[in-house]
Structures are given as C-alpha cells and as structure tokens.
C-alpha cells in the first residue's frame, strides 16, 4: 500500500462521494468524472494500461458527456429547493452501509487476500488483441451484437418525438 | 537614512518604473477593440482595419465581439437614445482597464443629428471618453491617429500615486448608471458623475445680440 | 464538386500571400504615420477662414454676413458681428466677426458654408489629425484657430485657390475702378457702398 | 515511484497545472496590489449583445444532441475493441480479420439503420 | 420610468407538449458581429432552429425626416449621404431627382453622365463590400472583405478627388452636380475600370465555386416571386427571385436608356442567387461605366437657372425614385412653398427588404439567419433613418 | 552516421543528461524528467506565442497587408504585449455564473492540452513517456478537452456560450470517432500503440523515398481524414463553429476575460499543435527526414519543420474558407467521415493480405475512391450544389 | 389609364365608395386619389388584382401631419350696444380640425406602370385616428404602417403587429407630428443659437432650481 | 493489510457509495450513475484480482474489465435514453414523482 495508492484512492472516493451527494446534477457529473479518472489511474497503477485509458476514453469522454446531455435535456428551469434525496434515503443508506460492512468483513476475513504478490506485470495491448481475436472471439461478436442492440434500442427510445417534430 | 536603505529604495523605484513601463507598454500595444459599430463611422473603422490602413500593425486588429475581452470601445457613429443604454451596458461589461474613443461628430456631440429627438448629444454624457476624433466621418488615418494618441495617453499613466488612472483606484467607479427609457426621454438624461461640462454660457444669451440679426 | 472550388480559393489566397512579397498591388498597406498617400486636392475636412496678407485679424475675408451660419445644416457656426467696420480684402469697409466659432464636434464637412459664401472667406481645410482628449477646449474652434492664410489655402487646394484669387483680383480691380470713378464723381460716398450680397437682403 | 512510466506524465500534469495556475495567480496578485477588481451589478451581469439578459440560459435543451451522443458512445466502444485488434493485426490470421469484419459489420448495420431512420440528419 | 429593454415576450417559455426541450430566447444584437450595425433580432430557438424571429430596429433612428423638415432643401443633401452610408452618391441622386421633379428642373447632359458614372461606381463598391460582408458572416476570416475593400479604397479615391470626401460626398445638386470632373479624372477612372474585371475574376475564383459557400447558400432563404413582390422587396434581392424589375429600365430616369446593359436574374431566389446576381450586376455596372466614360460630353454641369440659396419650390408634392444598389430608393417630398420641405420622406430599400426576413428565417438555423440577413444587404442608417 | 551529425541530433538529450549528471544519482532520473517537462512546456508555449503572431502576419499577407509589425522587431513582441495586457486585465466572472466551474474550465483545458505532449516524440530519443498505449493515451487525454469546453460554456450561464458549448461537444464527439478510426490504419501497420515504435517503423528508406505511411493509399486517405477530423477537434476554421463569431459571438468563452481567456487561446493552439504532432507522428514519419540524403539534419528540426508546415496550412485554410453550418458539419462527420474511416480500415486490411505490387495499389485506391465519390454524392441529399447559369433580362 | 379612369372603374367595382382626385400643382404632375377609409381595403384589393391595373407593388407608405389651423375672419354681427342694435365688425377666430394623412404610392411590377397615389385621412389628430391597415393587401405596408403609428400616431386597424417600431415601447409621444415638443436635454451647447440658447436658459432655470 | 485487500476495500467502498446513491437519490440520472459506479467497482475488482491473481498472463481479468466497460456503456446509453423517454412522458426525472404519476 503506497502513497500513490492512497492518494488515488482518496481522489476516487472523494469524486464518487461528491458525485452522489451534490445538489447540482452537472456538478455531480463533473465529480463523477474525477472519480472515473481516479479509477483509471488505479488501473494504470495496477499495470492495466489499456483498461485504464479505455476507462478515460469511454467513461470520461462518452458516458459523462451522455449524462451531461441528458441533464441538459431534462433540467428544470428553476432549481428545486426540496431535498435531493428520496423519501426512503435512510433505508437506502442503511442498506448501503450494511452492504459495505458485509463486503468489508468478507474481504478482511478472506484468505484469498493473503495471496502472494506476483512480479510486475503489464497487460500489453498486443496480447489483449490476440486474446480478443482468439479466446474471446465469441464474446467479441456478442459484444458487437449487444452494442448494435443498445444503439438501436437507445435510439428508438429517444427518437419518438423526433419524428413528431420533423 | 543610511546608504543601504537608499539603494534599496532606488532599486524598488527602478523595479516600480520598469513595472510601470512594462505595464503601459503591454496595454498600449494590445488594444483590442470591441467589435461594435453604430453607423457611418463604423465603415471607416472597418476601413481602418482593412488592407490599406491596416490597424493590425499596431496590434489592434483583434476585434473582440465580446466586451469581456475587449480593451477599447470605439463608439463609431450616432448614439441614439434607444441605443444609449446598450452602449453604456456594453461599456460597463468591459473589463478594466478599458478605454473609449469617441469617433466622429455624432458620438462626440450628436453631430449633425443632434437636433433630433432620438439622438444622444454625446456619449460622454454617460461614460468617460478618452479620445475624441472629430470628422463626419473621420478618415481611417484619423482613427489610427487617435489610436496613437490613446497609446501616448496610456504611456504617460503612472502606476502609483495620486494621478494614477481611474482603473487603478479602488474608489473610482468602474461602471456607470445605465439610463432607462422614460416616457419622453432617457432617464436620467445625463450622468453627473461623468458629465462635467461647463453649463451653457448664459451671458451669451444675455448679451444684447440685437446687432446679430 | 469534390473540392476544386476550395482548391481554387486556396490557390487564390496563396497567390496573394506570395504576391505580397513582390508586388505593391498585393500589399496595399500604406504605413500611415510614416508613409502617407499623396494628398488628394479636393479633400475637405473642416472649414477655415481665409485671410490675406500677414495679419490674420486684419486680413480676414469674412464680413460676418451670417449666410454660412444660416445655411449650415447642422448649425455648427456661431458668429457675432462687429459694430464697427474695417476694409475687407477688396478694400471696401465691412463688418467683421468679433466672434466666429465653429464647433467641429458637430460639423459634418458638407462644404455648404463654402458654397454659399459670397466672399470666398471660408474654405475647407484638409487637416484630419485632430484627436483630442477634451471636446470642449479641443473641438470648439474660435476665430484665431480658424484663421489660416491664403498661402495655406494655396498649398492645400492650388487649383481652386488660383481660381478664387483670379476672381478676387478681378473684383478688386472692378471695385478699384468703381471707386476711382466714384471718387471722381463724389469722393465721400464710395466707401459706404454695400457689397452685392444677395443674402444680406433676405436676412 | 519515479520508475513508473507514468511519472513523467505526472510531472507534466503538475507542470500543466502550474502553467495554468501561475499566470492566474500572478494576475490575482496584480489585481490585489495595483488594479482593484470592481465588480458591479451591471458589469457582472450576463452579456447578451448589450441588452439585459432575460430568462435563464440553463434551460431544458433540445434532445437532438442525444442521438449523436448515443451513436458516439457505441462507436467509441467499438474503437476500443478495434485498437487491440489493430495492434495485433500483423500477427493475425485471415479468419481473425474476418471475425473483426463481422464485428464491424454488426455495428455498421446499426449505423445503416440509423441512416435509414434519418437519425443522422441534423435537424 | 419604464424598466429598461425587456425583450418582447413572443412565446411562452416552452411549448405546450413540453417534450422537445424548452425554447431559448436570445436577442441577437444590437451589438452583434453580423447584424450589420445596430440591428436586433429577437430570436426564439429550438436547439439551433429558429422558431420565431422578430426584427427590432430603431437603434439608429436619427430623425432624418424630422430634421429635414427644419432644413432647407439644399441642407438636406448632406444628410442623405448618411442614409445608406455605403452609397452616398446614389442617395444624393435620388434626392436630387425628387427635388427636380418637384420643381421641374432639367439636368444638363454632362451632369447626367457624371451621375451615372458615380452611381455605377457606387453600385460596384457596394456590391463588392456586401459580398465581402456576406462571406464574413459565413465565417471566412475577412479575406474576401479585404479584397473588396482594396478595390473600394481605389473607388473612394476617385470619389474623393471628385467630391472631396471618401464617403459623405454631398456631390449632387438640384439640376446637376457640384463641381466638374477634375483634370485627369476621366483617364484615371478609365484605367481603373479596366482593371476591375480582373478583380471580379479573382473574386469569383476565390469564392463562387467554393463548395462550402454553395452548401451554405444554395437553398437557404428561398424568397418566392409572389412574396417578394407583395412585400415590396426591390433591388438585387427581388431580381434574384426572378422578377424582372429594375427602376433603371422601368423609369429610364437620368439617361439610362442610352446605355446597353442587361439585368441578371435569379431563378431560385435563394441566398446563392442573391450573391450571384450581385456579382453579375457588378459586371453590368462595368459595362455601363465603360460606355459612359467613353461617351461623356463636354458642357455645363449644372442647370444655370437653379439657385443654391433661397430655393423655394411651388407647393405640391413629388415622389422620385432610383435604383440604388440596395433597391428602390425613393424620396417623397411635400412642399408648402417655403424653403423647407413640409414633409420629407425616404423610402428606404433596406427597410422594405427586411420585411421578408422573418419569413425567410423561420425554420432555419442560427447560422442561416446571419447569412440570409447578409444577403438581404441592409444598412441601418437607411432602415432607421 | 557520422558522430558529429549524431551529436547534433542528440544534443538536447546529451545536454539533459549532462545537467542531470551534476545531481546525485538518486535524483538523476527525476531531474531528467523535470528537465524534459520544462523543455516541453517552454518550447510549446513559445511556439504558441510565435504562432499567434505568425498567424496574424500570415493572414495579413493573404489579405494584402502587413499584420502586426510595430511591437518589437517586426512585430514579434506582439504576443508579449498581449500577454502582459491579459495578465493585468481585470478578471470578470458573471454573478450568475458557476464560479468554481468557471475557474476550472480553462485550467483543465490547458492541462489536457499539455498532457497530450507526453507521448509525442519530437526527435530521436526525445519523448517524455514512451507509453505502451501512447496513441490511446493521446485520445483519452483529448476527451478532457470536451469536458473543459462544456464546463466553460455551461458555467458562464450565457445563452450564447451554452449554444457554443453544445455545438462544441456535438462537434467534438462526432469527429472523435473518425479521428480514432483514421489512426487505426497506422496502428494496424505498425502493430503498436506506442508512438515511438510507430515513428521507428517509418524511419527506413527505399532508395531516397521514406517509408512514411502517408505514401500508401490507405495512409494517404487516413492522413486526409485524420487532418479533417483534427481540424474539427481543434475548432479551427472551417470547423470553428463553437466560437463562430458571426453567429454566436464568441461561443463558449464569451464570458471569459483577462488571462483565463488567454488560457483558452493557449489551450486551443496547444491542442492544434498536439493533433498536428500526432498526425506527423502517425503519417508523416515523425522526426524522420523526408529523403534519405537529408538525414544529417537533426531529427527535432524535422519534427518542428513539419509542425510549422502543418500550422501554415491551418492558417492558409483559415484565411480562405468560410465556415460550415452545424448540420452540414454533423452530416459530414457521420455520413462521410465515419464510413470513410471504416472503409479505410478495411482497405488497410486488404492491403495487408494482398501481395505487394501495382495491383495492390490499384485495388486499394479503387476501394477508397469509389466509396468517397458515392458518399459525397449522398451527402448532398438530393440537393445539387453547383455553379449555376443565369439569364439576363434586357 | 388615367386617374379618372381608375376612379370611375373603382367606383363601379366597389359600391358605395367615395373617391376624390387630389390635384398636384407641382411640375411633377403626380396627382393622387383620396379614398374613404371604410372601403380602403376593398379598393386596394381591387387595384392590386384588377387584370389591367395590377398594382401589385406598394412602394411607399407615408404619413403626413396636417395640424389644425387658426383661421381668423371678420364677421359682421348685430349687437346691442348701449341698448341700440348696431352692426359691429368682429374678428372671429375658428380652429380647423387637423388631420393625419396616409399616402400610398403604388406601382405595378407586372405591367411596369405607376405611380398611382392613394391617400386616406383620419378625422382628427387626437381621438379618431383610426384607419384601416392595407397590410393584408400589400405586405410591404407592414413596417411602414408601424412606423406611421409610431411617429404620427395613426392607429391601423387590422394590422397584424402594431407596435412601436423606431422608438422604444414606453415612449409616449408621436415625434413626427408638427406640434411635438422635444425633450429638454440641452445642458451644454458650445455654439448656441437663439432657439437652442432659449432652451438652455429654460433648462438652466429648471435645473438651477434643484 | 495487503495490497489486494486495500484495492478490494476501495472497490467495496465505491460499490457501497454507488449503491447508496442509487438507493437514496431522487434523480433517475443519478440513480443510473450510481449503478455505473457499482459496475466500476466490479471492474476494479477484476483488475485487482487479475493483477494479484495466480496467472496474470492469462489476461482474463483485463478482458473481463474491457467487456464490462462495453456493457456498462451500452447500459448507460439505454438507461439514459429511458430516462429521457420517461421524462418526456411525465416531465420529471425524479423517481418519486415518476411513481406518483404512474399510468
């Protein structure tokens, strides 16, 4: 457990907490990008360069933008003063705390965690490509199918009024 | 006063002077005008930035459309009463330091149109003007001349002291009241904070000008 | 349709870019304060009062007839007439302006004052470097500021000034002849003859 | 830590932050020392061509942008899968190339569908 | 005191169904880089699409007409310069024409020639500058505008050496012109006019076949023939819509019937047509200029009967109009027999052409609006007077 | 290679090691890094200053005028004056604005712009971080720009800036995919995401001709597509819609004044340099000399010469072309750029699986030209943009 | 196609309308046709649509203000003076009712003839200032009628969007009327003329009182 | 505490934060973001297990993470699209109100 890790973890958690707790939705998304970036840095630290950069590319570059768009398209003209949390926030946070307690307990008590640290490894891109084209060819095609389905589905869901206006 | 303190002071003085020179040099060579034309004079203003006169030589061709990024407001043309609040607001929204060149007769005094009911008799009723260029419209060279006059003006502005320019003083205002539209005229019809012209020489009217006509 | 138009445009700008290093036609900038275009003779900016001879007060051609003041479209001229008379350019005793103000912050350089002046007393100057930081002291020109010599007039508008001078000389000769004739007839009446000013009667 | 390949990036990041912040700090010092900031109600109002800005800019926006964002997202992910393939490409067999082609075609199919639905025509 | 400029509420804040996103109400202008002066459009946007557009003007209302009622007939002449400040000479002409009609004054032949020469030069520089501004509005960083102004400066030099001023010429008088052509002016003008076709070629190469320009202008802002006529649109904008109406041909004012020239006509009525019609009109102007510069006779330049001062036309009224570069410029004068006009009215082409702006812009993009506005060619001095 | 040439080539690297060598061994690697970072920051900031004045002078020359020539020798101190002015200018933040986000936007933009230089090899052995996934790093960092622009436009709470921000995001996301896809052809050929190895792939020569990727059909097409996308990504004319002056005044940075505004300018130009640099790295052989007999000129000079050339082209285009409209821009991205880049990937694949020779060239060229023609037809959507003939009335 | 022809034709086609030819004594010879507001739209539509007239283009729309004049006439009145009825000459002053006039200049783009000038009058200048709008016939009248409304105060019934066009919305006066009083904003005039000077003096007294 | 443990703890924390957000926030958008966070937490687990697992050369964890990112992206697209669609229907993104406006 190094200083780098601590800093990155702190940034990540701060980002995610802020993302979940801030009032202004755009601020939430901006905080979220910080969290995503922190996670990406953690991946990089773990030697998964490709995944880390992909995380930035997809989450910061695309998902956050998507969320921002949706916020822009659904925002209210006036800021509401009422609570940003739902009526059962207490139950919700209790459940979350419980989950964390269970998970933490599990992690802490698990024997897996005492596994030996392997030497420095790095997930180079080329083996990833090889693996993708051989071992994971079927998931890849399924992924393609899924993405196409998501594309069509999301567009169909969002398109409705477009036809109406055109 | 011992020797050491003296040299120290001198050093600081030099620093202050070079700082002032650098500051004035930077300001005067980077006068970005607000992209804003009102009437006829605006065409000569455009002509001044075109190939033949090329205001760009002075680094002043960066016409910024947003007042936030502009340093110089060239009031080029007739300011009507309907437009005056907007002009004042644009001036207000510029960031300090900001300068105003009142270009042409109309902007200075209403010019040929000052007899009109909708024409403001000089933009200096609402905002402070640094340089006036007479002419209807002034030649592009005259605008460049005014720009150089403004540069000279900036060059002589001290950074500290009592006679430092307005934008360096904390107590001097940086924005001025935006006139509102009244039922017959702008309200107020001038801003006494800025407009300190001599009142009309009533004695003139009082004199017996029977011999006049 | 696949970018030829764009390429043509690019070629045109490239030609101008490169041409600017070799051809004056492609680099039309006149670097103003140092370089100047040749003064165009007809150019006018603001009026001035012509005076003949050395003394600007004596030689002023203006007889304060108020025509220019009346005809000035933006009403930027203000004249006050003298109570006494003094000889004018032609030699006739005339009124002269005690106050002659032009507010150049109002003047629209329309030249109508010059056109209507029957005395060739007011002409258009060509100076345009008039930037000032005070509109009251800088742009309200009095008689002293406005008075410029006939030589100055010759310098800025040579052709026009020559014509004016010839006219004036002819008129002067005519008046002199008339005066001579009058002097021979009744020596005392001649100086009081009013000048042929059509507008003066209208006033 | 300094052996990490990301250390230079980190230093560059710091330099970038410094490069952005330093002049702002300098400007702030200048403003504090010499040229006081003078905010005002009209000065710090929103600029709108010289008029008083009426109504909020933060309004509910036209949803046309969203469709582009979706397609962008999908193709972004596609590019993520394409990159490792491209890196490994020189060592790959024809069959692998075909597999990728199938993957691509699947996505292109979505694109073609979007064409036909006129989604990709900016309104 | 009334609260300062509230933009006119044109529409409710969001549409009834509420699903498509709210409308954004924006005022473009009065200070906007491409509203050609102090023009304002209150625009309601749906995304980037224009849902509603209301032109708002009066920001340059300088009371020209009211002032003219207090001025002598001659005194209004310099004020006409400042109407459409690009084309002071055609404004002069239109006003002179109206007064000549009112008072029944004849113009000597040489003066008519000078008028045509100056008017066509004015038309040329106006169109050149307009095309420059139009491309500027399209986002070309000033290059075509600079080229246009390069030629314009030379034309202004010609004006200056003739009239004494670059822009505000105040040159024409009732019954003729103020001064005769200075020595060497004609040769100079001939030489210069001979270089202008080369400039037009350059201009065309630079832009006319540019794909981006075509994409930005073709099919944008289509003005139908019927609407154009009904809305009183005149000038190149009208002719781009395919209506053959040019006051130079219809009224044959001045001596335009002596010159052979053609009227370019558009078919689609879109922005590209308006752009091209102007380019072609510039060529026709050169045509007229060449003929006029060749044929100009010697003679007086002003009707000797006209007086500069004390000009008092008989009671009555007259409407005189010419084909100004922007369209039909008319002056309507009512005389009550005094030296000041009782009523002085300018029929500005820019204002009339603006009538159709709203119809042209609805449903288009923000980017189209500035292009359409640019192609209509307005000058606020004329719109607001 | 002669040692003198080699020395000249490696002079900065050697200098760096020499300076670092004065320090204890423990700090040497850190010093190395810090020195290169300083060099990068200073060089590119300087390049920014020079480019602004070159752009203004170049535009001036295109437009028959001088451009800035009074401040300092030949006007080259102009950016300095602008800098001093910007530094001392009042910093205005609208009252209604989101202050924190408003502040962070330009900072983030500059950071993102600088980060991209980490993986750009500006000369032989002159790269800050030779990352395994260098190209991917570049694109990942590039996404931060979108975020910064959105933050600027949104936080200003100005209608025009918001329009500008929405335009900017829509434009950037639309051209990001083509940008990535256009570079994939190079990655396929190079078999690596590392910028250094991509350049190394291109340093060889056949006769005097270099092995640049741009000299293949797919490389040429890829280069053009990449440059178009890069122009759009860096908001340069004719794709400068987000700040389209004539339409939305100043776009997303309309409310920025003082040095924050200067930072936007800086970020934008740095972004332009970075994408140009990547284009050079991917397609134009990076720091490699264009002909084998010119290899004696130091590698970094070649890189910057190419960079300046790219900048000149950017300026040239800016001086000539009008701006596209939003719908045309978007349609161009999705209906032309995206399919073309995909086809280009396919063409590169075909190239790989075909034996060398003229036939390969032909097949590849046909594979690219035919869809290009068809797609540009489709772009017009039935509308025919063409020069028209006009009738004249007598 | 003389004005008389048009007049008789219109009178035949639009029943009940009153037309009057207004002669123009000036050399321009542009005589005009005064129409009654009640039938204005019908007349205009006829002028536009009639096959041989086709005045499809309304070039110019203008307002003119004709304020009421004071007419003094001498009248002989019988009066009881000192109980005796005498005939006394008396000056009787009467005020004519002023009116606002709107002038339309029509041309035909199709037939290329014109102009034909139409005029309409309001009943007075204060209350009965309503006239029908011809915007429905010629769209070109839109802005110009708004302008007349703004500057003269003629209210055009049936105009689609009758708002002030040149002055701001809160403005109260109609500045082109002959009796418009200009706002007092003459604090300073470097070259004062009599009238201006007088205003400035008044202003000074007003301002000085504060 | 070993490295793996700490990564897993961070992951668990992020998961819980995401869960808490998803359960407590009223805005549907933030609920979706919470779910995204939970997915991300899983990704961190994949990477950490790959890194500290017995056979890092197999890249299984990395591949899992990549596919997971792809799926998460697809989920975000569809999820946010649904939010948009629901918003169009009920003019709100707040879950409470969505419930109350059922039908």
Tell me what the structure shows.
- The complex is a heterooctamer.
- By secondary structure, chain B is mainly alpha-helical.
- Chain B has helices at 3-28, 40-49, 84-93, 104-109, 140-155, 202-206; strands at residues 72-76, 99-103, 131-133, 180-181, 186-187.
- Chain B has a domain at 31-156: Rossmann fold (3-Layer(aba) Sandwich).
- Chain B has a three-stranded parallel sheet. A two-stranded antiparallel ribbon of chain B has the order 4-5.
- In chain B, strand 1, helix 3 (84-93) and strand 2 (99-103) form a beta-alpha-beta unit.
- Residues 202-213 of chain B have low confidence and may be disordered.
- Chain C is an alpha+beta fold.
- Chain C has a domain at 49-125 and 134-178: 2-Layer Sandwich (Alpha-Beta Plaits), CATH 3.30.70.
- Chain C contains eight helices and six strands.
- Chain C has helices at 4-19, 67-71, 112-116, 135-139, 143-146, 150-156, 158-185, 198-202, and strands at 47-51, 77-87, 93-103, 122-124, 140-141, 147-149.
- In chain C, a hairpin with a 5-residue loop joins strand 2 and strand 3.
- Chain F folds into two domains: 13-88; 92-380, no CATH class.
- Chain F has helices at residues 3-9, 11-21, 25-62, 78-88, 99-115, 134-156, 159-190, 195-201, 217-233, 245-248, 258-283, 299-320, 326-353, 358-379; strands spanning 205-206, 209-210, 391-393.
- In chain F, helix 9 (217-233) runs antiparallel to helix 11 and helix 11 (258-283) packs across helix 12.
- In chain F, 65% of the residues are buried.
- The mean pLDDT of chain F is 85.
- With 103 residues, chain H is mainly α.
- Chain H contains four helices and no strands.
- The model of chain H has no long low-confidence stretch (mean pLDDT 81).
- The chains are: A mainly alpha (166), B mainly alpha (213), C alpha+beta (203), D mainly alpha (123), E alpha+beta (385), F mainly alpha (394), G alpha/beta (210), H mainly alpha (103).
- Chain E binds chain G through residues 2, 5, 8, 57-58, 61, 63, 65-66, 101-104, 227, 229-233, 243, 245, 250, 313-321, 328, 330, 332, 334-335, 342-343, 345, 347, 351-352, 354-356, 384, and chain G through 24-28, 30, 56-60, 62, 64-65, 103, 105, 109, 112, 115, 117, 138-144, 163-170, 175-176.
Record the SSE blueprint:
The complex is a heterooctamer.
Chain D: H1 7-33, E1 47-48, E2 51-52, H2 64-88, H3 94-116
Antiparallel strand pairs in D: 1-2
Helix pairs in contact in D: 2-3
Chain F: H1 3-9, H2 11-21, H3 25-62, H4 78-88, H5 99-115, H6 134-156, H7 159-190, H8 195-201, E1 205-206, E2 209-210, H9 217-233, H10 245-248, H11 258-283, H12 299-320, H13 326-353, H14 358-379, E3 391-393
Antiparallel strand pairs in F: 1-2
Helix pairs in contact in F: 2-3, 3-11, 3-12, 4-11, 5-6, 5-11, 6-7, 7-9, 7-13, 9-11, 9-13, 11-12, 13-14
Chain H: H1 3-24, H2 28-52, H3 60-90, H4 95-100
Helix pairs in contact in H: 1-2, 2-3
